[in-house]
Amino acid sequence: IPQHLKTVRSLPPKLIPPPRGMKPMEVRGEVYMTREDFRRMNEERELAGEKLFVNPRNSAAGTLKLQDSKEVAKRKLHFAAYSLRTDEIDTKSHYENLQLLKKVGFVASAHAQRCDSIESVIEYWKEWERRRDELPFDIDGVVAKVDALGQQQQLGAVAKSPRWAIAFKFAARKAETTLEGITFQVGRMGTVTPVAELKPVFLGGTTVSRATLHNEDYIHQLDIRVGDTVIVERGGDVIPKISEVMMERRPASAQRFAFTQTCPECGTKLFRPAEEANYSCENSECPAQVRGRIVHFAHRGAMDIEGLGEAIVDQFVGLGLLHNYADIYDLRTHRARIEAMDGWGMKSVENLLAAIDASKQQPFTRVVYAMGIRHVGAGVAQLVTRSFRSLESIGKATVEELQSVQGIGPRIGESIVNFFSDSHNRRIIARLKSAGLQMAEKERNIRQVSLFAGKTFVLTGSLATMKREEAKRRIEERGGVVASSVSKNTDAVVVGEEAGSKLDKARTLGVKLIGEREFLNMLNGEHISS
C-alpha cells in the first residue's frame, strides 16, 4: 500500500531533517477516517446509487485495499503517528519521541498525556470516556504505555503485543432489540460462525442488524433463542455482539438452538476438534474458503508468488479461473484470456507466470505451510517436515506418531490427520505433485547441516547479497532456527550493514558475530571461524 499512503494528506511528503543520529527511523501509526468525512462519503455513494459503508473503521481499511490510488485519494484518510523507533535512540522516553515526531512533520495525538501515577492514568481514562464524542473520530478506549524506552526494552513483547502497553477499553454502548433468526457464515479458513439476525436498531452511530454469536458454547451459555429480546453491544465500538437475554420477555414458542452439522456453503460434514469451541469445514474447495486459502498459499511467507495478491485472487476467483490453490499452476492455459483483460498485458502475464513457475522450487516446509492446515504455522511445518521428510509420510502418520515430535500436541496432530483424510484435499495434493512442487525434503550435505542444525541465529542489518527473507529461508533449510531477538540462547548473530541494537545486545551478551562473507561461507559448507 505505499502508493496509497502517498495520497494521505496528513503524511508529510518530506521530513524536516531530524537531529543527528536519528537514521534509520521507523514510524508506526494508524490510518483513520473521521465521522464527518465518512458521512459525506456515504451521502455521495447514496446519490450515485452505490452500496453504503457500515462504519469509518471498515471504510478506512477497505480503502487501503483498493487497486487504484486515484480512488483512494478521493476518500479522505488521515494518519496519526504513535511510535518512533531508531537504532540509535537519542531520546529516553516515549512521550519525547511523540514530540519529536511532530517536529519532523508527522501528526501525532494532541491529547497524549504523561501521567505520574496509576491514579492519574485511571482519571485520564475516565475523562475521555466522558469526552469521547468530542473527538472527530471514533475511539473505544485509551492506551497506557510505559514511558521510559529503556524499561520498554526490558519488558519486551510477546508475539502480537508489547508487554509495556495495555489498552483500557470503555464500557460498550448497548441497545435492546429482537433476535429474528440465526444464520451461519464460513470464514476463510473454514471456521463456521453463528450470526444473529436482528431487528435493526441504532447503536453507536450506526444501524445494527447482525451480530456475532461466536460459537455453540456461547449460545448455550446465554441460552439464546430465536424470538428473544436481547441486549446488543458493540465490542470495541465496532463489532456487535449479544451480551444478555431478557428472559422475562421470552416467548413461549422459543426453542433451544441446535448447531448445524454440515457446512452451509458446500454440505461437507463439520468437524469440531476436542476441547475447541468452533466447528470447521475441512473442505479446501468450499466456496467460502477458496479466496482466503489461495491468498495464504501465494503470500510471501508461503509460496511467495509475486503478483498474486488479494485483489488479483479476487478477480481470478470471480472469473472462475481459480477454484482452489492447485488451479494456480493451470493459469498458463488461460494466458490469452488474462492478457485480454483490463489492466493486463503480455509482460504482466509473463511476470505472473514466471513467479508461479519459480514457486515450484520453494522448499518442502513452505509447501506444507502454504496448504493452510489448521494450527500448522511456519514453525510447526518445519517440525513436521524435518521429522517425516515427505508429504506421503505426513499423510500416513497417526495422531500418536505426530505427537511424538516435540512441539506437536494432540490438537495439531488431530488437525493434520483430519486434513489428509479429506478426499478433496488429497485430490489437490495430487495435482500439486503433478505440477512439480517439492513434496519431500531434499537430501542435505551432512557437513552443511552440522553448521546450522539445532542452532539459533538472529539477523540484523542489511545483507548485500540477499534479502533477509532469503537468508532466513536458507538457514532454516539447513536445520537452523531464526529468532527475532538476541538472548543468551542465541548461537550467532549475522551482521549486515547498518546493524542496529541487536548488534549491541549481542556484544553485551558475548554472542558470536558473523559477517556476511563468513555467513556465505557457512552456506557453502565451510567451517565457521573461531
What this model shows, in words?
The chain is α+β, with helices and mostly antiparallel strands. 37% of the residues lie in helices and 17% in strands. It contains 22 helices and 14 strands. Strands 5, 6, 7, 8, 9 and 10 form a six-stranded antiparallel beta sheet that branches. The chain has a four-stranded parallel beta sheet with strand order 12-11-13-14, sandwiched between helices. Strands 1-2 form a two-stranded antiparallel ribbon. Helix 9 packs antiparallel against helix 10 and helix 13 (364-370) packs across helix 14 (378-388). The longest helix is centred in the N-terminal third of the chain and has 14 residues, at 118-131.
Sheet with the most strands?
Answer: 6 strands, antiparallel
The helix-and-strand class reads alpha+beta
Into which percent range does the helicity of residues fall? 25-40%
Q: β content, as a range?
A: 15-25%
Number of helices: 22
Sequence stretches where pLDDT stays below 50 over 5 or more residues: none
Radius of gyration, taken over Cα atoms and rounded to an integer in Å = 26 Å
Principal-axes geometry comes out as globular
Number of strand segments: 14
- The end-to-end span amounts to 44 Å
